[in-house]
């Protein structure tokens, strides 16, 4: 797994975290697999009450929509340890971590373009939404062809 960071106090830094974990892509928010019962919902045994999303959850959704407009991005991923996520009631919002000083975006990309350029594209569409936060891009996996890795690939 490879990450690129663009913190204000340092230039873009390549950090390699070892072999790819094969972390699966996480579907975009709003899809059927992103569904979650709201706190106090009928699924929890209570009358359904609307739950307003937190500002971090709202921002994570807007960022995810923009990231998915990048042609080289195949999906979002929470990374090998599930650390790229915005926590909310129910299932965490995987692939976007909104923190006080930074936003981390975990993506699965399509093979072809150099990874630093793909990371810069992602950063470019995300930065205007981040209210001055640093934007770190984690590339959790690379899809080759139809998404099936060749034999012997790790």
Cα Rg: 16 Å
Proportion in β-strands: 15-25%
Structural class: alpha+beta
Stretches where pLDDT is under 50 for at least 5 consecutive residues are: 7-38
State the major sheet.
6 strands, mixed
Shape: globular
Mean pLDDT: 75
**Helix content class:** 10-25%
Element pattern in H and E: EEHEEEEEHE
Number of helices: 2
Query: What is the straight-line distance between the termini?
Result: 11 Å
Question: How many strand elements?
Answer: 8
What does it look like?
The structure is a single chain. With 154 residues, this protein is of the alpha+beta class. Helix content is 16%, strand content 25%. The protein has helices spanning 55-67, 115-126, and strands at residues 2-5, 13-16, 73-76, 85-86, 93-94, 96-98, 102-110, 134-143. The strands form two sheets. Strands 1, 2, 3, 6, 7 and 8 form a six-stranded mixed beta sheet that branches. It has a two-stranded antiparallel ribbon with strand order 4-5.
Give a brief outline of the structure.
16% of the residues lie in helices and 25% in strands. It is built from 2 helices and 8 strands, in the order E-E-H-E-E-E-E-E-H-E. Strands 1, 2, 3, 6, 7 and 8 form a 6-stranded mixed β-sheet that branches.
Notable characteristics:
2 helices, 6-stranded mixed sheet, two-stranded antiparallel ribbon, single chain
Sequence-ordered SSE layout with sheet pairings:
Elements: E1 2-5, E2 13-16, H1 55-67, E3 73-76, E4 85-86, E5 93-94, E6 96-98, E7 102-110, H2 115-126, E8 134-143
Parallel strand pairs: 7-8
Antiparallel strand pairs: 1-2, 1-8, 3-7, 4-5, 6-7
């Amino acid at each position: 797994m490879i990450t690129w960071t663009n913190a204000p106090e340092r230039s873009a830094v390549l950090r390699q975290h070892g072999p790819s974990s094969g972390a699966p892509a996480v579907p975009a928010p709003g899809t059927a697999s992103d569904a979650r019962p709201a706190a106090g919902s009928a699924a929890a045994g209570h009358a359904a009450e609307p739950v307003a999303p937190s500002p971090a959850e709202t921002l994570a959704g807007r960022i995810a929509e923009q990231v998915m407009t990048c042609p080289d991005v195949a999906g979002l991923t929470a990374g090998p340890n599930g650390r790229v996520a915005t926590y909310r009631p129910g299932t965490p919002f995987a692939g976007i971590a909104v923190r006080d000083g930074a936003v981390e975006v975990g993506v699965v990309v399509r093979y072809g373009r150099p990874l630093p350029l793909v990371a810069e594209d992602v950063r470019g569409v995300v930065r205007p939404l981040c209210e001055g936060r640093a934007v770190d891009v984690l590339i959790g996996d690379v899809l080759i062809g139809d998404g099936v890795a060749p034999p012997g690939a790790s």
